[in-house]
Write a structure and sequence with these properties.
The protein is of the alpha+beta class and 582 residues long. Helix content is 53%, strand content 10%. It starts with 8 loop residues before the first helix and ends with a helix.
Amino acid sequence: MTRQAFDRPSYALAADLERTLGDPYAPSGPFSWSETVEHEESGALPPGAVDLIRSWGFAQYLVPEVFGGGLRNLEQLVLLTRSLARRNLTVSVMFGSALLGVNPVWLWGDEEQRARVARGMLDGDLACFAVSEPDHGSDLGTNGTRAVPDGDGFVLTGEKWPVGNATRGRFVTVYAAVEGIGSSLLLLDKQTLEQGSWDNHPFVRTVGLRGHDLSGLTFRGTRVPAGALVGRPGTGLAGILQVLQITRTAIGALSIGTMDSVLRIALRHAQERVLYGQEIYRIPVIRRHLVRSYLDLLIAECTAMPVARSLSVAPSRLSLWSSVVKYLVPTLGEEVTQEAGRVLGARSYLREGVASGAFQKLQRDHAIASIFEGTTHVNLHSIASQLPAVARVADRPAPGGDAVLRRLFDWSDEAPVWQPSGRALRLTNASEDEITRGWEPAVAQARVIAERELPAPVAGALLKVLGELSARRTAFYLPIAAGSLDAATAEGQDRATEHCVHHAAASCLYTWLYSFEQERASAGGTGWLVLVLQRLLGRLEPTAELDESLFPWLEELMLSSLDGPEYFSLQAVKAAAGVAEG
């Protein structure tokens, strides 16, 4: 038997949070389904939920270690957020909005700004990122909020809406057009602003995330000190685009947490519900919905986790990779939620009953994942605009690529500690995309492993799906490299969508190569890879089929994890494969 999968401090920390939050099926408690849904009905958070999270110390993981907090890296925060999100997305988004609000300070703030914000956050204060405006939405090139120099500071006028944590947040990072300087970011502390010169809007009533502070701010000649400027004057737009790379990646945790919960609810229901003389799990189409959902969750995890690690390993790649995560992982989350709804049938439409009616809350809450921090279309546009540069070198491995890939995909070691620096982030990847460019060497390595180590049926299935994906990949990148691609067209969006599939397939392959070295030859140690690659191929070729001979091991793992403390995850896959090997 191999040692416990991914036995590292970040996973131990997430496990401690899991124990603190407790079983969502418990009859009571601030993170039980019953209390969550009950208070959701009135647009409120369960009493004690936020206090429990704060007393556990979640806020310290929004402040980097270098500034006195506990945040070591983005991977750590993704694991914690996933655990929180699988119980209550509303609470998760509250802290996520706070992270977005203070990240510009961590990246570009001066010593005084960082120290003041760190103290406040560690004491339980929240923050917000005031960018959107009622008439301009995500059109960041149009900024109606103005700051006019006045004496030793500025006078701020304008309206920001809708903004997460706008009312509850103490710290406000505002995107404003500063006269004589250009669009910039300003850090405001509500405790020091002149009363009566600003006010908050009422909370917006939303379909999901009921109880979340989604409101706004209006500034009416608000005096702001000169020291409020964050980073270099006039770089506000670039700063927004860069800081979003971090939170877009972290949003993957919200979707993966949701997938875990809706799959768990559906699987439990499939075991307990009896129709036609048998539990409905025995109905083939029901099993197919559940297995496909589990595979999609594994794909999402393989895609999101290395990009989270890249903030510490290769931050300049985030301009492309974060958009891949932001498009693909919420999309998978939406599809898994739909599959779970099909398993639940009529029960998916009820606001009570199965899991106290939590499914409908999860479904409504998760709808925001594809919208905020750049919609699906915005992220596909970002990917498409960078595709020609990537396609031109897609068949050439990146120099030093193997070292980068190992640090991203070998999860036996912690990701390096994040040293926040705005200079490390870029607006485009250029051709720096080790994940795309490393495919062919990885396939060659997998071929050798298959021939030397794997049972013939699994080896044959692996080589077949790798060959099919390689052929699709070549046919995809060659015309883009030879021609041009207009990112604003429907074709550009379609091309970006397919690129995300190739990125995810490569991520799954690297995860197997670097994190499953000891388990590859065991039962399930390679079968999971074959199935996720076949599942991804099915996104490109609808006639592609899953190898159902590989289902039994995976199904047994799903069922054994149902009532356990661990996630549905690669961690469980690796641990089970290690047991089989032993």
